[in-house]
C-alpha cells in the first residue's frame, strides 16, 4: 500500500490556524504524549501548548502533592494547598491563553477538562476574541488508564483514576452540544493524520491588485473600468490582466442597478477560475438568504434581482433557473468577511465591505462578519438610515484597509483606510484602487440608475455645508490627524476660538486652512552678538538626519491664505456659493475690505485665466499660503500706536539725555562712560525706527501690493504636501510670471557646509540691510527621524529686526544673556500640531468632506493659538 493510499485510509483531524483546542480526557489518557509527538513531527510548536501541570510547576515548583497516607490534619492542609495552587495555575494559564487569542495565535490546552464549566470558560474566551474553539476528546478504556497510572512516577491512585473516568463518561453526553466549532473523538486504535491549516483569509499580493468598489449591477461601467485597467477578454469570456494582476470586489456587486444577475454571474465565473475574489457584503448576504428560501424583505433595489430571476426562468426554464439560484447561493455564502493581502509574510492590504476593527483583522466570527457587512453603526436616524460611526479613525495597525459601502463623491483616504464607493448606481462613479501603485481609476456612471431623491450622494452634498454642531466642540474635543495622531483641544481654548470664528472670521466654508506657527531654532546662538543665527537651524536639521535644506527669504509682510476659483460656478461644489475666492489672514479674518478683495480677486482671476492656468493644471481651484507686502497694509494701527510712538519718544529722550551729558562733560564732569552708553542706546533707537520702517511703504490703490506665495497647497482633488520645497519654489516662480500681483520668493538650496556658509553670508547681508531674515526647511514638506516628526520649518531673524520683537536695547549684554535662556519647546510642539491640523483640514476640504470635518481641524488650530506661548518667539 502506497503512502498516498495509507493517507486516504487515515482519518484527518485539522489544526485551525488560530484559536483554542481544548483537550478533554482523564489523567493517563495520553494528552501530553500526543502533543509531544506532534511537536517532534513539526506539526505543532512547543509554544502553542499550555499545560496545567507546567503552570503548577512554574508557580509552585511541583505539579503533584501527595496527601495520601498522611495523618488527617496534614492531608487536609496539603490538599488545600494543592487546590489553591491549581486555581492560581489555571488563572495564570488562562491569562496567557487570552493574550494569545488577542494575537490570533493557536493554543492547545493540556488539562483534563472533565466538567462542562471548565470547558465553558474557553468557549467564552474564544467568543470574546473572535477565534474558533475546538474540542479533542481522548476516549481511552478504563483498564488502560489504570495500567498507565501504575507506571507513572507519581501515580494518582486507582480511586482517583476511576473517579475521573466516571466524570469523563458523563461529560461525553454533553460535549457535542456545548458550542464547540468542531469536536473530534480520538482513541488508541485509530490512525489519525493531523493536518495544519493556513489562514483562509490570507492571499499573496502577487503581480498586483485591482480592487473595485460597489458595482450594484452597473455592468457596463464595470466592463469599461476593466478595459481602462487594461484587462482583456479571452476566448472563455474571462477578463485577464496581461501582468497577472488579481481582480478584487469589495462586495455589493448586485441590487439597485440594471444588470445584477449578469454582474453576479461575471464574478462567480472569475472567482471559480481563480483570477478574482469577492468579499461578503450586506446586499450579498441578504440575497444569499433569499436564494436559500429564508424570509427576507427585498427592498433598496434587492427586489430587482427577484424580477431578473423570474425573467431568467421564463427564458431558460425552471430547472436551469433552480440550478443558477443554488450556484449563486453557495457563491454568496462562501464569500469571506474580509481578505488579507500580503507579501513576505507581512499583510499589506485588507479588503472588506463596510469596515473592520484592527483587532478583527485576520479572524473570523459572526460578530466580525456582521461588522464587515454593515460597519460600525449607532441605530437609525429619523429617516430610517443607519447612523454610521467613524470606525476608521481608530485604525492604527499600519496596513491599508480598502472598503466601500458608504457612498462618497470621491475616494476618501483617512488613516490608511481607503473608501472606494463613489455611488456608481446613484449617478456617481465606479472606482478601482490599484496596489502597489496606490492609484485610483474611475469611470463616470452613465446615469442615476437608482433614481433615489434622497440618495447617499445627494445627502452627502446637501449636508456638506450644514453648520457644525458646536456642542460637539465647546467642552473640548480631539481630532484624529494622519500626521500627528490624535490631538486633544482643551475647552478653555476652544471657547476663545469659537468666539473668534463666530464674530470675526470669513465664512466657515471658506476657512479651510490655518497656517502653522514657526519656531526659532531650539538652541540660541553661541555667538555673543546674536540671539538667533542660521548655524543653530542647520545644526538642528543635520541632527535630525536631514541632508538637503531650503533657505527662503522671509518677506516683510503679513501672512495670507488665497483660495482662488476658476470661475464663480466652480466654487459651488467647494464652498456652496458662487465666488472667485477669498483672501484671509492667519487668524481667519478677511485680509482686505470687501471692495479691495473683490478687485484683487478679479484681477488675479483674469491673469490666471489669460495664462490658461486652470485648464493646463486640470483644476477648478488654487489654494496658496503666501505673504502679502507691505506690512503696513495690515499693521498700520500697530505701527502708529506702538512702534512709531516708541521710536519717537526714545529718540527725543535719548538725544536730550545725550545733550545734557555732553554739557556736563564740557563743565569738567567725568561722564565719558555714560556718554558711551547713551550713544549706544541712541543708536539702538535709530536701529529700532529703521527696522519697522523697512516694512512700510505707501500704497496707492492696488499699486504696490505684492503677493509672495511660498506653498501651493492644493488643486482640485490633489494636495501638494508630498512635494519638495524645491517644487513649491519653482511653481511659485511660475505664478510670478502669470500675474503682476505675484512675486518670487528668493531661496537657496543647502546640501553641504559650503552652502551653509553661503546662506549665512546671504542672511547677514540681507538682515544688515533691515530685512527680517530667512526660513530654513527640510527638503521634504513632511520629514521624520526614526518615526518622530521633524520641525517643518525654523525661522532665523536678523539682529536689526529683533529690535522690534525684543525691545530697543535687547542687544545689551545683560539683556542678551537673559534672553538666551528662553524656552522654545512649547512653540515647537505647537508648530508640529498646527502643521498636522493644517494639512488635515486641506486634505478634508479637497476631498469635499462635510464642513464640520474641516472645521474641527481649523477650530483646533485656532484654539492652539489661544494657548499662551511667548509671543516673541
Automatic annotation (TrEMBL):
Gene3D superfamilies: 3.60.21.10, DNA ligase/mRNA capping enzyme (3.30.470.30), P-loop containing nucleotide triphosphate hydrolases (3.40.50.300). CDD domains: MPP_Prp_like. One of its GO terms (cellular component) is cytoplasm. Transmembrane segments: none annotated. InterPro entries: Ap4A_hydrolase, Calcineurin-like_PHP, Metallo-depent_PP-like, MPP_PrpE-like, P-loop_NTPase, PNKP_bac, PNKP_ligase_dom. SUPFAM superfamilies: DNA ligase/mRNA capping enzyme, catalytic domain, Metallo-dependent phosphatases, P-loop containing nucleoside triphosphate hydrolases. The keyword DNA-binding does not apply. Keywords: Kinase, Transferase. One of its GO terms (molecular function) is phosphatase activity. Residues 211-409 form the Calcineurin-like phosphoesterase domain. Residues 496-868 form the Polynucleotide kinase-phosphatase ligase domain. This is Polynucleotide kinase-phosphatase. It comes from Paenibacillus etheri.
